[in-house]
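Homework help board

Subject: predicted structure for assignment chain

Our instructor gave us this sequence and asked us to write out the predicted structure in token form, then describe one feature. I got the tokens but I'm not sure how to describe them. Can anyone check?
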Amino acid sequence: MTGKSAVRMAAAADRNPALAATPYMGWNTYYGVGGIFDERTIMSVADSLIARGLAQAGYRIVWLDFGWASGRRDSSGQIVVDPRQWPHGLAWLTAWLHHHGLLAGIYTDAGSTGCDAQGVGSHGHYRQDADAFAAWGFDAVKLDFCGGAQEGFSPQVLDAQFASALGNNSSHRPMLLNVDNFWAPGHVGGGLPSYPNSAYANYRWAPQLAQSWRTDTDVGFTSSISFADVLRNLDHDAAHPAAAGPGHWNDPDYLGPELGMSGNEAQAQLSMWAMEAAPLILGSDPRALSQQTITMLENPQVLAIDQDAGGVQGVPIQQKGSGQVWVKPLADGARAVALLNRGASALTISTSATAAGLVPASSYRLENLWDGATTTTGGPITAVVPADSAVLYRLTVATQLYIAAAHTAHVTPTVSPRRAMVRRGDTHPRRQAPSRPRPFAHRRAATRSQVDAQRRAQVSRALSAIGAAKYRALRDAGSPEIGMLREPARSALPGPATAVGGVRSLWVALGLTIALGLLCLTGMFTPVRNRIAIGGMPTRVGRVFGARGRR
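My token output:
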């Protein structure tokens, strides 16, 4: 079976976008604890995820990587679960995790063994292992290709076969699939894999099978991650942003704070992973992390950039020296803007709101998502960024110059990522652009009398709730709560479309009045008077032009 036919067979039934409508989050054993862990280790880490707030922030998948299996099968072909490592069994462990509000992930290799012929792989047992993972209650599967590549297999063929088995498991349990073909071209014995079978080409076919796929090799080793490798993976991940979207994500590898990077570097990694809409899997041991790092990982404003419902991957739009500007359109029309300094010394990096894709306006609101500072700018965005660091902003229009659409449809990258891996003829799934809302469709038409009535009703409710005496005291003291009652509701004010329609209706009414006067002078008033008496023309005219005025 060819790679394309295998993918076509698996694609229809296997990838479930609902399993990762936004990039998934969690923790994995590989970088933090290595390949030696057991039930007690996993429960201890899970307790830490909960106690330190990481689970509540979204890091819910507890993922067992290489090392969970004994490395052998029984006579029926089932993977042997070591009772010394898992005394209660894996089904008990997943039930315990689910009871505590967490999810469970597991690992296998598409080959017959893992790396360097170690451990046990799933080749020849895809359906059997998929059924076992489902029966044990796992929610996610990482499909490695370390052993598969060393055996000379095609990842496109084998991963499609495994995805089909996973999607059709006998328990009918939906499970997220992460394709972990991490090999760069020529890294296996100096000749394999070829480019089409490398991590750089996963995005061509994996979006049809899986919820995520690796875009480069590992960012490091157990307990050792370098910022240089983080930047390398960032660039390769950025080479094909259109492949990512709700239900299918580019995966640049795991987060690794306190595993060799400085605090600024770890913060920059999280910033850029959020800009790229990457899955956020923590590789570090949460039990050993400082509280400062925990606070960084839980920053709700930064996580909201990663988890934005629009699912658009950010792109670099400009570069000068070691300074880069990245932009990510958000679902509400705002922009996330990252100023990234890849160099060894502090750097002033500048851009503008219009370069970020917002409409021309008299002012913009600029929120620094790391220090919480909010400023207003007329357009320019400038910051002094320390070495190996990133500044992350949320940018919105504060005051528009004129009536216009709230935001542009997309941002076009104007900087090619370093060592870009997009080749002529590459294809990727295309997503339908969301329809634009009609301008002013959300505005409610209301007259000033309606606003006054609304304000009187608010005051009446306030008097009933707090009493007249307390209301007068709060009013005289200038209480903001009472001040809000004096403010007409913005949604109740007539919008521009209503105002335009109102002016149009006045001109129509004036024209009708003049026409009636002329008819009176010419002695033709009687038929018109009869038409008015039966409610004809003025009512119809008012209905037609009034409706048009509200559009």
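Reply (TA_rk): Your tokens look well-formed. For the description, you could write something like this. Residues 448-492 form one domain. That's the kind of observation they're looking for.
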